[in-house]
Amino acid sequence: MVSQYEEAGVNIHAGEAAVQDIKEIVNQTHDENVLHGLGGFGAEYELTGLMGQYQQPVLISGTDGVGTKLMLAIAADKHETIGIDLVAMCANDVLAQGAKPLFFLDYLGLGSLDPQRVTTVVKGIAEGCRQAGLSLIGGEMAEMPGIYKNDDYDLSGFAVGLADKAALLGAEKVQAGDVLIGLSSSGIHSNGYSLVRKIVADAKLDLNHTYATLTQPLIDELLTPTTLYYHSVYPLVQAGQLHAAANITGGGLADNLGRMIPDELTAEIDATSWQVPAIFNFLQEQGQISEDEMRQVFNMGIGMVLVVPASEVEQVTTTLTQQTTPFQVIGKVVNRREQPVEYAN
User: Fold this and answer.
1) What pLDDT, in 10s, does the model give residues 100-145?
2) Cβ atoms 224, 186 nearer than 8 A
3) SS (H, E, C) 173-186
4) 4-167 and 171-343 share one fold
5) What's the CATH code, domain 4-167?
6) pTM
7) Residue ranges per structural domain of the chain
8) What pLDDT does 33 receive?
9) Residue 150 region, left (φ>0) first, then alpha (ψ -120 to 50), else beta?
10) Which of 16, 133, 137, 142 has the fewest beta carbons under 10 Å from its own?
């Protein structure tokens, strides 16, 4: 017998089945500090064993979503990696302030609950948590057919990290002479997709076609998951080799790196120092977008910038090379010119 709640569009049994399916996936991300994850009214994470490592412990948190990249995943029925994007949007922000990632919570709102699709999405979130050093300890899943239509869904996440107050990264540590090291992005990451979708629509691009300058179908280029930088960057934080870091999201290099530059200094960027990935050149050509707007909207191939004291550059670049982390020295910090961030060419 179908209940009135199911007639209203909410399937409680499907929700229970989805929770059972994802429990083991979630448990695999847990570390020894997780007391209780799924099943309670709130997740529990113990800090006792961590406190002795910090003289002045500071919790750092970040929350975000995936943006309209999610619309492409839904339209293409490709949900395997969108959860990685969700984690990255939160975790890379927390990492950029010098925090050790602790735990992650997610929220999934749906129009119609398909347990298999939910499991696929959560597998991606769990994979993102593994890449980010986070325990996935809880979340919320809500079927809301009055808000979301048919197969539509939305994602948001919340990450928490821990740092010693004296070791926090930020603008107050940045000095003239610091060197800017750019860590390569995997592509567009998760920002600028409203413009991406407009270009696709206006130019009548075929998402399933592999265009001449690309190495895979356009939809796969566009859904390439965001790079998580934890394993590359946190060892440098622990070694005290960074002054600041900037996660390059919406607003591009100028807006995001600009947050880390004091009023009396300027970050001078050499735009010729790295090769812009083909997907950006393709979108720029297809959409007839100016260089200035491309730089304002997209990361253009640099997903995170490390602000490194000149004395630490050799060791940092050696470590990144040993990690096989793709990077490039992209500029330096100089005395203030007109803007916090300026391109040398």
Assistant:
1) 999 999 999 999 888 899 999 999 999 999 999 999 998 888 888 8
2) yes
3) HCCCCCEEEEEECC
4) no
5) 3.30.1330.10
6) 0.91
7) 4-167, 171-343
8) 83
9) left
10) 16
List, in sequence order, every beta strand (DSSP E) within the chain.
34-36, 44-45, 57-65, 100-110, 135-143, 153-164, 179-184, 244-247, 265-269, 302-308, 327-335, 341-343
Q: At 47, give phi and psi (nearest 5°).
A: -105, -5
- 3 state DSSP class of 104: strand
Q: Write out pLDDT tens, residues 305-337.
A: 999 999 999 999 999 999 999 999 999 999 999
267 strand-pairing partners: 333, 341
The strand pairing partners of 158, in sequence order, are 63, 105
Q: Which amino acid is at 186?
A: S
Q: What does pLDDT average to over the chain?
A: 91
Q: Quick check: 194 and 259 in contact, CB under 8 A?
A: no
Residue 4 banded pLDDT, cuts 50, 70, 90:
very low
Helix segments in 185-340, DSSP class H? 193-202, 218-222, 230-238, 252-258, 278-287, 291-297, 313-323
In the three-class reduction of DSSP (H, G, I as helix; E, B as strand; rest coil), residue 302 is classed as strand
> Is residue 13 helix, strand or coil?
helix
Contact 241, 309 (CB under 8 A): yes
**Residue 292: which residues within 8 A CB-CB, separation 6 or more?**
none
Neighbouring C-beta atoms of residue 74, cutoff 10 Å: 17
pLDDT at 35: 84
Report whether 299 contacts 188 (CB < 8 A).
yes
**Contact predicate 330/270, CB 8 Å:** yes
Q: What angle do CA 207, 210, 214 make, to 5 degrees?
A: 110
Q: Report how far residue 302's alpha carbon sits from residue 182's, in angstroms, rounded to the nearest whole number.
A: 6
